Amino acid sequence: MMLRQAKLVGVGLITLLHVRFLSFCAASENQPCRPSSCGDIKNISNPFRLKGDPLGCGHPDPAYELVCENNRTILYGKYHVAEINYDNYTIRVVVAGLEKSNCFSLPLYSLTMDHLDRYKYPDEPCKKTEQNRVFWQSGNLVFLMNCPRPIFDYNYIPVVPCNRTNATFSSSQPYAYALVGGSKQVRDLPYSCTIGMTVVTGNLKAVSEPSNLSSSDLQEKLLMGLQLSFLSFRCHECKVKGRWCMPNFSNNTIQCHDDDGSNCEMNMISILFIIQIILAFKIANFMIIIGGRFVLGTSSLLGYLIYKFQRRHLSLDDDIEEFLQNHKNLQPIRYSYSHLKKVTNNFKNKLG
């Protein structure tokens, strides 16, 4: 009896422990992901994730993955994350290599707008829409260049690079300038200058005209970094309803619509159909030209051969007539009966 009670108590304890273990596992699975941190960035959470975070934390798209290196948060290996604001869905990034200094600090990399212009489906043209854009940014492209002589143009901002040994600025071209992309086209650059690097700054609308910028103003803009909007990640709220999403970056809201109105797939089919028609027309035109040239060439050859044959025939007639003229045998010759009898051996031989 005692043994039976002991067995029941043991089974009960095992069952209780098993239930508590399952409850703990379930609680762990249902527990939301805790924010990660790296250096000054303490609130790395959805849609961002830090490399090494548990699966399921943050957005699964690799574009939202951040890396912690030397206690600094890095985006795409080229930008230092300075701030993440989840209230207005923005992340501020600074190009790696920039430092506050009396001289003009240069970034480590040459960057353009395209480095941040990423989509979730880069290989599908019809999905390159605002709802699939990873980041949205508004900024200015700046060209850093070397020149062998001074430029007297207020659009070119003189700069004094911190590192003259850098390959970006050559000692053989001692004058360095910065040109904000919106003020002039690249094709207008002086022929003697060479572009050493391109960088992207935050929006320069606060300054009345790019020509009013100084080297220190531009350096400050670069150090402030770029403010990128990741509002588009909220478009999953529309997608789960089977609707199309339109982010409004001015007031940080999204609007769901039943149709994007673009009919991109139909447009692509129409474009392909038009391309096929153009190709067919080109091929037909090519065949007509080739066929026309063949017919024209054949006709010309036949005409030439007929002409040559007629000329040859006329030439033979002329030769015969010349022969007859030379021998004066154009008039009929009269022969006597006795002469004919003699010539034909008493009419035994035929003449002609």
TrEMBL record:
The chain crosses the membrane at residues 273-306. Residues 33-94 form the Wall-associated receptor kinase galacturonan-binding domain. Its main location: membrane. One of its GO terms (cellular component) is membrane. The keyword NAD does not apply. The keyword DNA-binding does not apply. PANTHER family: LEAF RUST 10 DISEASE-RESISTANCE LOCUS RECEPTOR-LIKE PROTEIN KINASE-LIKE 2.7 (PTHR33138:SF30), OS01G0690200 PROTEIN (PTHR33138). Residues 1-27 form the signal peptide. It is a single-pass membrane protein. Keywords: Membrane, Signal, Transmembrane, Transmembrane helix. It is found in: Membrane. GO terms for molecular function: polysaccharide binding. This is Wall-associated receptor kinase galacturonan-binding domain-containing protein. InterPro entries: WAK_GUB (IPR025287).
